[in-house]
Design brief:
The chain is α/β, with parallel strands linked by helices. Helices cover about 40% and strands about 25% of the residues. It has helices at about 5-35, 50-60, 75-80, 95-105, 150-165, 175-185, 225-235, 240-245; strands spanning about 35-45, 65-70, 90, 110-115, 120-125, 145, 170-175, 190-195, 205-210, 215-225. The longest helix has about 30 residues, at about 5-35.
Length: about 250
């Protein structure tokens, strides 16, 4: 191999290496420019329709942020957070689970941003003709309730206690959505859920509960990571958030 040929090959190799370096540098730069910040929001299962809207609105206003909503029973979410789960926001369906997280992590006060009511979930058009809480004591009915450690279960237990009704639950679910699903699928004749879980649905109906027995359902929210989660909490409690909550059937303080 002549010296001239050798020099040409070395030069070509160097040019190829430089091109690769420039391509990689460019790709790295694009990656940095297109990077998004992930904000994990842990929210009670019953907040599903509202959190979907909040997620979309927040991401539209903040294209560099990816809001990821984790929906489950508040007791499950609280346990995950206390075990070290990466949550920037926690929106609970009751004060009890919120206080467990606040005390466990040494956080400040939470904000109650929504309220709800309990109803008796029945099959579409109420074929069994259920009229009130007393019907849940009927031995011929298959009744679904949320587990007592879940907010919906705790609220239901208090409501039944006030009414003096003993309901033998055939199934205890891990979140309130599962109660509604049981009734919708015909696996239960009735259950207790939140009003917002059933309004607008064609596959189930509901029977209202008398005010004398009704329990006030409160939803507190807190930013666990103030920098990442604070703006999401602000949107949830803003006029836009309140409008979304109201449209979904929630009460707004």
């Amino acid at each position: 191999m002549t010296a001239d040929v050798l020099r040409c090959r070395v030069a070509a190799t160097l040019r190829f290496g430089m091109c690769c370096a420039l391509i990689l540098a460019g790709a790295s730069g694009c990656s940095r420019l297109g990077a998004t910040e992930r904000v994990n929001v842990f929210a009670a299962a019953s907040l599903d329709p509202v959190m979907d809207e909040i997620e979309q609105e927040y991401e539209a206003a903040n294209p560099d942020v990816d809001v990821v909503v984790n929906l489950a029973g508040s007791s499950i979410l609280a346990a995950q957070i206390l075990a070290g789960a990466d949550a920037a926001v926690f929106a609970s369906a009751n004060i009890t689970q919120m206080n467990l997280v606040r005390d466990g992590l040494g956080l400040g006060p939470a904000t109650v941003f929504a309220t709800n009511a309990l109803v008796i979930v029945v099959a579409s058009e109420n074929p069994l003709g259920l009229t009130g809480l007393d019907d849940l004591a009927r031995p011929d009915l298959v009744v679904a309730l949320a587990a007592p450690e879940v907010p919906a279960g705790a609220y239901a237990a208090e409501m039944l206690r006030r009414a003096g009704v003993t309901a033998a639950a055939s199934t205890l679910e891990l979140d309130v959505r599962a109660v509604v699903t049981r009734v919708a699928l015909g696996e239960a004749d009735a259950g207790v859920a939140y009003l917002t879980d059933v309004i607008g649905r064609a596959d189930v109906g509901y029977v209202s509960v008398a005010d004398d027995y009704q329990v006030l359902v409160e939803y507190p929210v807190i930013a666990i990571d103030e920098e990442a989660g604070g703006p999401v909490v602000e949107m949830l409690t803003s006029a836009a958030g309140r409008r979304a909550l109201s449209d979904a059937g929630f009460g707004v303080p």
